[in-house]
Design a protein that fits this description.
InterPro entries: Clathrin_H-chain/VPS_repeat (IPR000547), Pep3/Vps18_beta-prop (IPR007810), Pep3/Vps18_RING_C (IPR058919). It is found in: Late endosome membrane; Lysosome membrane. The protein is built from 34 helices and 33 strands. By secondary structure, it is of the alpha+beta class.
Length: 982
């Protein structure tokens, strides 16, 4: 028993699967024009895969029931075998303990797999719970041969069945409930109650209740389906909320006055069987199949309908090989798209979509006749058994070929739903749908489908062209374009160009027909196409072609729109300018702020709308380079248009005063405009521009020439002043105004000689040209450099002295005052010299005291053992130490001078040593004189050396301050010093 679920492939199973594969292979090849190639690398497994259970029963199998992975089978007369399919190696065998001749009539297993009902041929019923080993008799059920049970899927659990319905061989329907819990002291039976709720008849006679099913819909609405041999009954009713535990009596009571809804068929084979298909666990069934005498009634279950649960009902009539007298169908099972029909030696699978037999599996005679077929609603496996063997079917990818059936039925949406993961099949469905729509003249739908297929592009396009369906062709091209990848540049270019041509043709036709509404809609659609970001790159690369198409159709508006989309604003502005629509051109310029376009189109726009153009320039501000706009401004300013000239000056003033432009060309041009058209502003501009050449941004020579050409003398004087040509400024200013000349004469403050010369020019002009003596005298008072004697030569001979009396007196007084100042300065100088001599004399007599312990500040050795220097600051140095410290800091000249003095001093010392001998007494005077001269010379040299090296303390004087920025180590000796430290 440990290997009860060990599976092996039956030899006949391989043959059946190969037959099925060969039958379906022709439909999987694909259309001849499809871009897909359907290649099967491995043989596909069949939908219904039969496996025999490796199990040899010790006794013959009477009945078998499977639900929720729990399997129960009746063996022989008195044995019940239970197997948990999750633990197949742990079977449980129970003896029923019956000593009479009773046989097991039927086995019933609830949806949870917990409750087993055993109907005996002696009209008794036994109960067994999954958690117990004890079989208990249902005393209230005695006397009724149980044929069917309608389980309560909502309230049933492992310990209680909840209210259930039971059908008997006499057509009576009972309501009952079974509990696995031990009863009370007075009631030890598991059956809680057992009461009759209804009875069924056929032709006025009681008949067995073959099958029962209980389902709940919306709003506590219950549907009860019950079948007899040739009738199918439906009981529909509501159960009050919260009263489900009370059972289904109220549903049957609602139908007492009316006959229950039923369907009846004439043929009768003595029994019937109904089966249901549930897509997911714990959901309501979606479809049903009822095996009865006339065939199989199958359809869908609709829980919304008020009176009947069945919808889309069809009847599959038995095939001629099924003889109800000799070869009656035994059992039926329903799957998602098929129902399996069990005959005594074979199984047939019929597709519920088209009613065709798609699978037939013949069982060998060695296993005996087939007895029953059961489907586990939880596991989905189909079980078949004979007296000596158990089989099961795995159902794999049942929907694999459903798409073909839906496609043949023209149910394309369903066909596509079932082949989403198979692109080759999806392509076939789309091609078939497109062809179907085309034949039914639904061209737009056909185009949409064709665009999704891999059919030849040219073939489909020609189809629509031949049918003269431009709209459909356009739709096809649009869909095809959207499905292309960005890398397929050639195809995208072709489709974009073709679509543009189609749109333009359509727009032209609509415009000629005068259909404004559709024309506007088409135009909007066309513009949306042109502005699509997905095709922007292609449109940009081929914009010249699109422009040619638009131009050939005369579609100016759309050409302008396309130019804007492509940001080809130059073309848009050119178009507006060609049509004298300068305001719109300027609006486009101002909106997109392209500097290059401003430079290009400003000349044209300035000619027609100068004020608006200048406003636009001012709004652009520093984004524009005014220097690049000058050619346009100069061109039209020379033509003499007053408005253009005034606007030009306005923009130039904006550049100079607002933007603070320093370009010389801008300032020179503004100067020229002022000089020619606005002279009042010229002098103001020159004054505000600055008074120093470094502050000026215009060309001084150009400005001087410009002002001279137009006779603006004051402006020329101002330029001369800036150029520091004071003589020329004064000469020119004297032609205009003497006061202006005076202001120019005072400018060279650092050059008194020049100032005097300039004032003399003014005085000469006043005396000789204006002949105004009084004004000439004022010149003397205005400039302190002029004296009366300087200007007297300018006066004529006939002038009397009375005119100069005051000036001569004041001049003499000044001279007298000057002489007194000189006397005072001389006295102060004499006094100062006297004090200096006294200080020198005092310094000669000044001395300092040196202690014997003092040390040299440089070498730190005793000071008195060698010649030394003592400074007022207190520092003391040996002569040679001070010499060594000071020499590196001396200039080259002083170093050479010091070296020269040392050599001379050394030479003098040597010569005096060589002549050192006794001197005669008579020559004493001569010798004394010679020694005195030599001593004087040596003292002078020592004094010169002292002046060089001991003029100041090396630590406190200027040498120390100047050496701050010098490195401690000489850069030339750095490497040597560095190596000495290693």
């Amino acid at each position: 028993m440990a290997s009860i679920l060990d599976e092996y492939e039956d030899s006949q199973n391989t043959r059946q699967s190969s037959q099925q594969h060969s039958r379906l292979s022709s439909t999987n090849i694909g259309l001849a024009h499809s871009g897909f190639v359907n290649v099967r690398l491995e043989e596909e497994k069949p939908i219904f895969n039969k496996q025999r259970i490796d199990f040899t029963p010790p006794e013959r199998i009477n009945h078998l029931a499977v639900c929720n992975n729990q399997l129960c089978m009746s063996l022989g007369k008195d044995t019940l075998l239970r197997i948990d399919l999750a633990k197949p190696d742990q079977p449980n065998q129970i003896e029923l303990g019956r000593k009479d001749d009773s046989k097991v009539h039927r086995l019933f297993l609830d949806p949870t797999g917990s409750h087993v009902l055993i109907s005996l041929s002696t009209s008794e019923c036994l109960y067994l719970n999954r958690n117990t080993q004890k079989v208990r008799s249902l005393s209230r059920w005695r006397g009724h041969l149980i044929e069917s049970v309608g389980w309560n899927k909502l309230l049933g659990n492992e310990t209680s069945t909840g209210p259930i319905l039971v059908g008997t061989s006499q057509g009576i329907i009972f309501e009952a409930e079974i509990s696995a819990n031990e009863g009370s002291l007075f009631n030890t039976n598991p059956d809680q109650y057992f009461r009759q709720v209804h009875s069924l008849e056929e032709d006025g006679k009681p008949v067995p209740v073959c099958c029962m099913e209980v389902e709940r819909g919306l709003e506590n609405k219950y549907f009860i389906i019950s079948t007899t041999r040739k009738r199918l009954f439906q009981f529909v009713g509501k159960v009050a909320e919260g009263s489900e535990q009370q059972g289904f009596s109220s549903i049957f009571n609602q139908n007492q006055d009316l006959l229950p809804s039923f369907q009846e068929f004439p043929a009768n084979m003595g029994y019937s069987e109904i089966t249901f298909y549930t897509s997911k666990l714990r959901t309501s069934p979606k479809a049903f199949a009822w095996m009865m005498g006339n065939g199989v009634l199958y359809g869908q279950l609709d829980y919304v309908r008020p009176d009947s649960l069945l919808s889309d009902v069809q009847v599959w009539e038995y095939t001629p090989d099924i003889d109800l007298n000799l070869n009656k169908p035994i059992s039926i099972v329903l799957t998602q798209f098929h129902f399996l029909l069990l005959l005594h030696d074979r199984v047939k699978a019929i597709c519920t979509l088209n009613g065709q037999v798609v699978f037939e599996d013949v069982f060998p005679d060695k296993f005996g006749p087939l007895k029953k077929m059961i489907k586990d609603p939880v596991g989905g496996l189909v079980w078949i058994y004979t007296e000596r063997a158990v089989f099961r079917y795995h159902i794999q990818r049942e929907a694999r070929d459903v798409w073909q059936m839906y496609m043949s039925m023209n149910k394309f949406d369903l066909a596509k739903e079932y082949c989403r993961d198979r692109p080759e099949c999806m392509d076939m469905v789309l091609a078939k749908e497109a062809e179907h729509c085309f034949q039914n003249k639904r061209y737009l739908e056909s185009a949409k489908c064709y665009a999704l297929t891999q059919n030849y592009f040219e073939e489909i396009a020609l189809k629509f062209i031949e049918a003269k369906q431009e709209e459909a062709l356009k739709e096809f091209l649009l869909k095809k374009l959207n499905n292309l990848k960005q890398s397929e540049r050639t195809q995208i270019t072709l489709l974009v160009t073709w679509l543009a041509e189609l749109y333009l043709n359509s727009l032209g036709q609509l415009e000629s027909d005068g259909n404004n509404i559709i024309f506007q809609e088409t135009r909007n659609e066309f513009r949306h196409f042109l502005s699509s970001p997905k095709h922007k790159e292609c449109l940009f690369n081929n914009r010249s072609t699109i422009y040619d198409l638009l131009a050939s159709h005369g579609n100016v508006d759309d050409m302008v729109y396309f130019s804007v989309v492509m940001q080809d604003y130059e073309r848009v502005i050119s178009h507006y300018c060609q049509h004298d629509n300068y305001c719109d051109a300027l609006e486009v310029l101002s909106k997109h702020c392209d500097e290059k376009l401003f430079y290009k189109f400003s000349p044209v726009l300035m000619q027609h709308i100068p004020r608006k153009v200048v406003d636009a320039w001012i709004q652009m501000g520093k984004k524009l380079d005014p220097k690049k706009l000058i050619p346009a401004l100069m061109n039209y300013s020379q033509m003499g248009s007053t408005q253009q000239i005034s606007e030009t000056i306005r923009y130039m003033e904006f550049c100079v005063y607002e933007l603070n432009v320093t370009e010389e060309a801008i300032h020179n041009y503004l100067l020229s405009l002022y000089a020619k058209y606005k002279p009042d502003s010229l002098l103001l501009y020159l004054e505000q521009a600055g008074t120093h050449a470094s502050e000026i941004h215009y060309d001084l020579k150009y400005a001087l020439r410009l002002c001279a050409e137009h006779g603006y003398l004051r402006a020329c004087v101002l330029v001369y002043r800036i150029m520091e040509l004071y003589e020329e400024a004064v000469d020119l200013a004297l032609q205009v105004d003497v006061d202006l000349a005076k202001s120019c004469a005072d400018l060279p403050e650092d050059d008194e000689e020049l100032r005097k010369k300039l004032w003399l020019k003014i005085a000469r002009h006043v005396v000789q040209e204006e002949k105004d003596v009084k004004k000439a005298m004022n010149c003397l008072s205005s400039c302190n450099l002029l004296k009366i004697e300087d200007i007297l030569p300018f006066f004529p001979d006939f002038v009397t002295i009375d005119h100069f009396k005051e000036a001569i007196c004041s001049s003499l007084e000044e001279y007298n005052q000057h002489i007194e100042e000189l006397k005072q300065e001389m006295e102060e100088a004499t006094e100062s010299a006297k004090r200096i001599r006294e200080d020198i004399q005092e310094m000669r007599n000044k001395y300092g005291v040196v202690d014997s312990q003092e040390k040299c500040a440089a070498c730190d050795f005793p000071l008195l053992n060698r010649p030394f220097y003592l400074f007022l600051c207190g520092h003391m140095f040996h002569y040679d130490c001070l010499f060594q410290e000071v020499t590196p800091h001396l200039s080259a000249y002083k170093q050479s001078r010091l070296e020269e003095l040392q050599k001379k001093l050394a030479a003098t010392t040597q010569s005096s040593k060589s002549r050192h001998r006794p001197v005669p007494k008579d020559d004493g005077d001569t010798s004394s004189l010679g020694k005195g001269n030599a001593g004087t010379s040596r003292e002078q040299m020592k004094s010169d050396i002292d002046d060089i090296i001991a003029s100041e303390c090396v630590y406190c004087g200027e040498l120390m301050i100047k050496s701050i920025d010098k490195p401690f180590i000489d850069p030339l000796k750095f490497e040597e010093e560095k190596s000495s430290w290693l």
